[in-house]
Amino acid sequence: MNRKYRKTIIAGNWKMNKLPSEARSFVDELRALMPRTKTCDTVICAPYAIIPNLSRAIKDSRIAVGAQDVSTHDSGAYTGEVNIAMLSDLGVKYCIVGHSERRAYHGETDTDVNVKVHKLLEAGIIPIICVGESLEQRERDLTIEFVAYQVKSALYGLEPKDIKRCVIAYEPIWAIGTGKTATAEQAEEVCGAIRAVIRSMFDARVARAVSILYGGSMNAKNCDELLAQPDIDGGLIGGASLKTADFARIITGTVSAPPVLPELNREEGRGE
Ligand code: PEP
User: Ligand 1 centre from 265 Cα, in Å?
Assistant: First the structure.
């Protein structure tokens, strides 16, 4: 983490879990367990049907509401889809795009991701852009190349001021929901490479302002080591975000973030 240049973000991804009627009690319990002082931005990305109740429940709290996807279309005859205007109207602040489950089960393409990123930013919603390799790609040593392509494609056509508002989540597919977490070194290597890609597309100032999260079986036990890495600015958390105690423990993990190091002591760009 590096609080001097960018936000620390802990975002839960509830996926297709929980009920609208459970939102209030979850938020009340979580608020009671959260650290007293703000150490990170806390987000819950909920299914569409839960968002209205969640938006009411988080009112006057330090928690923001996120969605898990959005349509590429603005309005019209797209049965079953939800557009950005609807999310804005419900007070949604963040939206996941390109989650590997959307890519795998719903055919979301890199072009779709790029369109969604542009439209979300225009509407003032922060995209959480998911990228990550399969096990096969990792074993064939294609991780960095593949993730770099996904990042370049997602950010294509954006201005530097827009890039700074984007959040990237590195989520190795083989670590999602499997209980297999990337080691802190593996996660840091790819998050650092993502920052280097952004630096090559723009410059060091832009790159150091982007929050890069790790996602993939992050939990109350392994979060501290992951969050201590210089290029990991938080987490996108699936399973462990469903339990208030576990989610609160991960949020608390951001309290013990390493101190901000003086700019000149760091290797150019790395961790900045
Ligand atoms: C996710 O789906 O974004 C995720 C990281 O899930 P889990 O934490 O359960 O691996």
Answer: 34
165 CA to centre of own chain: 12
Residue 264 has pLDDT above 90, yes or no: no
pTM of the model: 0.93
Over residues 92-102, the pLDDT tens digits come to 999 999 999 99
Residue 23 to residues 5, 19, 50, 146, 243, Cα–Cα distance (Å):
33, 7, 7, 37, 12
Specify which residues 13 forms β-bridges with. 45
Structural domains in the chain?
Answer: 9-265 (3.20.20.70)
Pairing state between β 167-170 and 94-97? unpaired
What's the 26 CA to ligand 1 centre distance in angstroms? 19
Say how far apart CA 163 and CA 212 lie, in whole Å.
Answer: 12
Residue numbers annotated as active site: 99, 171
Is any ligand 1 atom within 6 A of the Cβ of residue 238? yes
Residue 214, beta-bridge partner list:
170, 235
Contact 6, 233 (CB under 8 A): yes
